[in-house]
Amino acid sequence: MVIKEITSTVGLIDPLEALLLNCIYSGASVGFVTPINDEELTSYWKFVGQELDKGYRKLFLAYDGENIIGSVQLSICSKPNGSHRGEVEKLMVHTNARGKGVSKKLMSFMEKVSFKIGLSLLVLDTRLGDVASSLYLY
Fold it and tell me: Which domains does the chain have, with CATH numbers?
């Protein structure tokens, strides 16, 4: 498994949509409800690409070979009094890759990058009792 910071969604929309769909339909709390249409998915990932271009967001992907098996995003606060803060968003791991430490590796990589760019506070929200909620306790 390899974790990479991605600076553009160009050429990645289809596999990112597939990952998001897999997570949505497996019950992950990632801000979407079913049924979901292709236009909504494409629009979302294009928005993420625009945010990457503007420097307001970072995207980290986990790969198994050429396959995207997980992702996490870091939304960077653009307010002057929030320049120390980022929000962790959309931690997703494909159902076929769960239980293999993908989430922990994504979070660790994202935290290291956050520290390097001067963020001292990361915030997130999760659904109480969600499988992933135990990952955030430490």
Answer: 2-136 (3.40.630.30)
Q: Token pair for residue 123?
A: 């915030």
| Residue 19 structure tokens | 């990952």
CB-based contact 93:27 (threshold 8 Å):
no
pTM over 0.70: yes
Nearest to residue 111, comparing CAs of 58, 53, 54, 64?
A: 58
| Tens-level pLDDT at each residue, the chain (138 residues) | 999 999 999 999 999 999 999 999 998 888 888 889 999 999 999 999 999 999 999 999 999 999 999 999 999 988 878 788 999 999 999 999 999 999 999 999 999 999 999 999 999 887 666 656 556 555
